[in-house]
Amino acid sequence: MNALAIAVMFHGLAVHTDMVTEVRQARLSLAGIALARERRRISRDVHDLLGYSLSAIVVKGELAVHVPERAAEQLADITRIAERALTDLAAVPGDSGHALSLGTELASAREVLSAAGATVHADSVVELPGEIDALLATVLREAVTNVLRHSRARHCRVELTLQNATARLRITNDGVGEATAPPGQGLTNLAQRVTSLGGTLRTAHVPGGYELLVLQPTGLGRDPDGVKTVARV
Predict the structure, then answer these.
(1) What is the pTM of this model?
(2) Fewer CB within 10 A of the terminal residue: the chain, N end or C end?
């Protein structure tokens, strides 16, 4: 009887040891997944936050070179944009409390696109929940970056409406040739951000230009049962 009890005890210890090992391996795997996700987030945020600032600095630098009488003004703008980029960079760890503002991004878009020779037509900013406002600000920033990098736009239009608890942001520009390459990392990042909050993002070449369209539920005007309104395309 004692031999049987000892055998059962050792078997239990062996099973327990195996379970501890499996739990430890599972924890290591989860930690590895979390680390990989954080690295992807940081890479995405660095691209999204700094791409615009660097493009704006290039535009301002070229204007300073080609229009010497405005060089001091453009250099002052470059300094301001670089300082803002440093602030954006500090937000990458995610604990600084810094968030993009759609109103601020729209004002910046007007300034930079005008400096690049484009006329900007934009709707007024509507009041949105903070998370949605920051998301659409990120979308606008990336859209303006793409206009600067991939077009010779002379006209850019930013349309923003709120209807049935869904924000609709449509950005169009001219000066774009035929599509020759798949969407870049910036648009891929945007699609992931928008989808994660239940929205949709579409891009398309249209006659004479390019269109980016986002339909984003805002969480406003929910039904009494607390179910969110979902955008349908």
Answers:
(1) 0.68
(2) N
